[in-house]
């Protein structure tokens, strides 16, 4: 009677199943909700003053594992602030080989490159997948932004994150006195709910009052927070000529200044140094921190 | 001579009812194919057809148009005449059974006094056009499928005939409408007499599934082994006719089974046609439900089930029914 029982069981299972609701999502007319951190394509952003955020530092180009980013840097005078700073003359991101690792977003000192949350990216030709600078800036307006930018990702690196009392001490300590007043206050708000979806927007507005320099400083607390980075950063200060009154100046700020002082062709070299220093600053101990004072 | 007098003539009567019946059945075949796809979808947590018409109800129409438009491919070494005649034959046989299904006492194409014999004869012939088409296709898969169809059809013919004999023995008539009338007086055969009637009904349904080539007895088709069995080489509307005949056969089988065992048009209230259609629909639902629940039998398991269990069981049932009539009935 084993077969007979199994047959009745099969009939019971299918009948029970037939009474349930189908799980089908009628895709083109009906779209499934994506995971909050889903990310698909890229966009380049403008800062609050309406200026291109990208300073042409080439950090994204250097860190990209599949080498799909090309940046041509140029130095010119900002129309907004009147100061000379770096710009991206051309910026190309080839999605065909992109592995969506988000490292470019993570290293960006000015939160210029971000990812977007559109449902689908495929195109009809290979050229559709090559994001030119125009497309990237168009994406900023048209596409829904993904959850993070460099600032948020940097905060996620904080080893004290979630520890009561210790959470923001490092960030506040390393912030320059003159920067503290304006950008810091609105920036704290999104920090409390780092998973909220529309979060990138308020963060962007936080930079509204700041010029290029201050926008750069936004990336600063994150980098300064990791404990391993402090000794290596101290070394770095000694190795390179001091740049300003602020102590423990972030790597990005140094790069920016270095870039401003050196002619453009030399900029990649400075960037390479900066990236190496960035790798040092990561929480894992690495071989490049050879002359750290702890040894 | 007015129209009503014309209908008295058995030829004109048969033709008129036949035309209506064929139209209704072919339409119903389209509708039940939609229903089956919907039902199968729900069983598998899908939605089934949704695009053509509301709830996809016009899907059979779209499928029909698609099939008519498709290219008619005839294999190079096929027997052209047999290849072309086989789809027509199978639809003819499937529809022919419907002639003796009674919807109301007078509403049937032909009230044959040997209606049950007629049904069994046409059902037994169902294997024939499939075999013809399979042979004419000049295709190994089709040939194997056709052989399996004949083996299965011949084997399952016997328990089917024996189980259909139970109502005949109990009611003492071979006419389908006489059997229904007897059930209205004495109770449905599926409930009374309790043992033989229920078992005979089960056996009749099982063998009808095998005759109609339906899962779990779709060994002749067996997509995983034989591509598409006897219909491998058929394209377009010829394949459509094979598919339609399968649905027609299922509906007609459900109709015959409800007439022989479930009391036909008998019901507590309302019109007889309603009850007949309701019973047929419920039986068709059960057939569909079985199809999407069970797995395909292996060929030897099929034969074992038939010869070792169904044939002895139906023989015993015939004997019990005979004793019942002799001593009690």
Write up what this structure looks like.
The complex is a heterodimer of chains A (295) and B (329). The C terminus of chain A is likely disordered. The longest helix of chain A is centred in the N-terminal third of the chain and has 17 residues. Helices cover 41% and strands 10% of the residues of chain A. Chain A is mostly helical and 295 residues long. With 329 residues, chain B is mainly α. In chain B, helix 4 packs parallel to helix 11 and helix 7 packs parallel to helix 13. The N and C termini of chain B lie far apart (46 Å). In chain B, 45% of the residues are buried. The mean pLDDT of chain B is 85. The chains are: A mainly alpha (295), B mainly alpha (329). Chains A and B meet through helix 1 of A and helix 2 of B.
- Taking the alpha carbons of the first and last residues of chain A, their distance comes to 77 Å
- The sequence of SSEs of chain A as H and E is HEHEEHEEHHHHHHHHHH
Question: Unreliable runs of chain B, pLDDT <50, ≥5 residues?
Answer: none
Biggest beta-sheet profile of chain B: none
Tally of contiguous helical segments of chain A: 13
SS elements, strand count of chain A: 5
Descriptors for this entry?
heterodimer, A: 295 residues, mainly alpha, three-stranded antiparallel β-sheet, two-stranded antiparallel ribbon, 10% strand, disordered C terminus, B: 329 residues, globular
Secondary structure layout plus pairing:
The complex is a heterodimer of chains A (295) and B (329).
Chain A: H1 2-18, E1 41-44, H2 59-63, E2 69-77, E3 84-94, H3 103-107, E4 113-116, E5 130-131, H4 133-142, H5 150-156, H6 169-174, H7 177-192, H8 200-206, H9 212-217, H10 220-225, H11 229-239, H12 251-261, H13 267-281
Antiparallel strand pairs in A: 1-4, 2-3, 3-5
Helix pairs in contact in A: 7-8, 12-13
Chain B: H1 3-8, H2 10-43, H3 59-69, H4 80-97, H5 115-125, H6 127-136, H7 140-171, H8 176-186, H9 194-211, H10 223-226, H11 236-261, H12 272-291, H13 299-328
């Amino acid at each position: 009677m084993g077969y007979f029982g199994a047959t009745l069981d099969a009939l019971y299972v299918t009948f029970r199943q037939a009474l349930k609701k189908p799980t089908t999502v009628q895709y083109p007319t009906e779209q499934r909700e994506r995971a909050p951190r889903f990310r698909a394509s890229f966009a380049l952003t403008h800062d609050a003053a309406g200026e291109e955020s990208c300073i042409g530092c080439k950090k994204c180009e250097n860190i990209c594992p599949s080498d799909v980013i090309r940046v041509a840097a140029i130095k010119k005078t900002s129309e907004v602030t009147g100061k000379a700073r770096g710009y991206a003359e051309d910026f190309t991101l080839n999605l065909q080989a992109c592995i969506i690792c988000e490292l470019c977003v993570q290293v960006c000192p000015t939160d210029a490159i971000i990812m977007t949350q559109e449902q689908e990216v495929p195109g009809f030709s290979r050229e559709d997948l090559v994001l030119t600078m125009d497309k990237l800036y168009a994406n900023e307006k048209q596409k829904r932004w993904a959850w993070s930018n460099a600032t948020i990702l940097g905060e996620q690196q904080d080893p004290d994150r979630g520890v009561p009392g210790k959470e923001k001490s490092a960030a506040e300590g390393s912030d320059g006195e003159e920067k503290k007043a304006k950008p810091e206050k609105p920036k704290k708000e999104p920090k409390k709910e780092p998973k909220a979806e529309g979060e990138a927007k308020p963060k962007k507005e936080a930079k509204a009052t700041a010029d290029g320099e201050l926008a750069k400083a936004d990336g600063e607390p994150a980098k300064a927070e990791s404990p391993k980075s402090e000794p290596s950063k101290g070394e770095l200060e000694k190795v390179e000529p001091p740049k300003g009154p602020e102590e423990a100046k972030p790597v990005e700020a140094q790069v920016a200044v270095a870039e401003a002082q050196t002619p453009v062709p030399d900029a990649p070299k400075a960037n390479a140094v900066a990236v190496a220093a960035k790798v040092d600053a990561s929480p894992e101990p690495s071989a490049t921190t050879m002359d750290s004072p702890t040894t | 001579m007015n129209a009503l007098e014309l209908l008295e003539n058995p030829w004109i009567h048969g033709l008129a009812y036949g035309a209506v019946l064929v139209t209704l059945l072919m339409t119903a075949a389209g509708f039940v194919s939609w229903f089956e796809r919907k039902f199968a979808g729900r069983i598998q947590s899908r939605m089934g057809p949704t695009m053509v018409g509301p709830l996809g109800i016009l899907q059979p129409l779209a499928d029909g148009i698609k099939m008519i438009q498709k290219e008619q491919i005839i294999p190079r070494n096929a027997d052209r005449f047999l290849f072309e005649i086989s789809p027509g034959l199978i639809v003819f046989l499937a529809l022919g059974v419907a002639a003796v299904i009674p919807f109301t006492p007078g509403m049937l194409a032909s009230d044959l006094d040997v209606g049950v014999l007629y049904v069994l004869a046409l059902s037994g012939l169902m294997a024939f056009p499939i075999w013809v088409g399979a042979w004419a296709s000049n295709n190994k898969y089709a040939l194997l499928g056709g052989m399996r169809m004949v083996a299965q059809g011949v084997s399952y013919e016997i328990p089917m005939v024996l189980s259909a004999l139970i109502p005949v023995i109990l009611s003492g008539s071979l006419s389908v409408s006489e059997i229904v009338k007897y059930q209205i007086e004495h109770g449905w055969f599926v409930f009374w007499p309790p043992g033989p009637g229920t078992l005979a009904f089960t056996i009749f349904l099982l063998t009808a599934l095998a005759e109609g080539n339906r899962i779990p007895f779709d060994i002749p088709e067996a997509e995983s082994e034989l591509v598409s069995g006897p219909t491998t080489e058929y394209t377009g509307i010829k394949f459509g006719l094979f598919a339609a005949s399968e649905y027609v056969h299922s509906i007609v089988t459900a109709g015959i089974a409800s007439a022989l065992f479930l009391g036909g048009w008998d019901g507590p209230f309302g019109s007889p046609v309603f009850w007949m259609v309701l019973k047929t629909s419920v039986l068709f639902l059960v057939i569909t439900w079985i199809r999407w629940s069970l797995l395909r039998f292996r060929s030897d398991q099929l034969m074992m089930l038939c010869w070792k269990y169904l044939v002895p069981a139906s023989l015993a049932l015939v004997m019990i029914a005979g004793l019942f009539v002799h001593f009690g009935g």
